[in-house]
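Curious: why these numbers?
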Amino acid sequence: MNKLYIMIKNYLKLIFRNKVMIIVVPIATILVVAALANAFHTLLDSAEDISEIRMGYEMPADSKYAMLEKMMVKSLAEQDITAVAYETGDPEQLLNDGDVDVFVAFEKDGYHIYGDDKKMMQCRMIQYVFFQVDKNMAAAINGEVPDIKTASLETVKTSEAENYYGIIEIVYFLSMSAVFLSFIYQTERQNHIGIRFSVGNASSFTRYMAKYLSCLIIAVLIQVVLVAAMVLSMFDVSMGNPVVFFGILLLTAVAFTAYGMVFFQLFDNLAVAIGLLFMTLWFAGFVGGTFETYMYSVFSESLKRVSPLYYVNRTLVETSVNGSSSMLGSCIIVLLAMTAVCIPLGVFITAKKKEV
């Protein structure tokens, strides 16, 4: 235990020498939150002002949706979407005249959604609803459900841009917490310190945990405490339930620190390790709502659930606006599973590599 304490203390000193990274992370988080909140301000903040959507549609007799038209119109009405049928009509003219917010031209095996830039939010909502319609229609054909159902978008209607991206970007930059260790790995490899460890009496577990705990301490201090406090105050972000909010952030730090360390251990080239780590996190963020709101994303629900960031993002956003989230249990399980896999894997790689 004394060796672990000494190694953690030395690693923390090395990390704090890299002052540039410690300064850049909070600034970068704030700048990204400001940029994305401004870019998506209209899309998210206008959601509260929309009480009803008027949707025009044209339904040919040979469309696969024709036999379900009445059922679909009724289901849409339950979502405050008024569907008006047109035998013939110019979608662009109807949109320009303000007769409809969105126009859907059904075809034999699909549909085309028409809208303009001013009605982008309504188009995304219609797109999301019809994705659910398609999914449930396929299930109905297979006898799995008795009716066509659409999805409620209550969280979307109350989430402001600053609130959404304030939470999301705290999570995204926290997922990169392992980069704090890059200076340590670079120093050890330049000075061949790993060779000295291999002939010393420090166990592989001790060597791994010293780096892991050092990085985790920095991640908690800089990102969970400092960055979160700055974003929450500057952008007036609501936590919802503070225990859930900070509890999930801590679990995120625990899981993603272990995940990021695997890349540093597998690859001796730091550029390759950081590059591959960022690629996987970018994909997880792209699918999970970091850059485009997950509520209006075109990705299927099954693809979103591949990304661990989706569970964290959705849990924290829904908790922020509703006080609770149905995703909380799944989020905790995913983060604990990541930790349970990555830490033993990291210890195993440490034991196998001659130079860490």
Q: What stands out?
A: The first strand starts at residue 53 and ends at 58. The two ends are 21 Å apart (CA to CA). The CA atoms of residues 175 and 281 lie 7 Å apart. The mean pLDDT is 82.
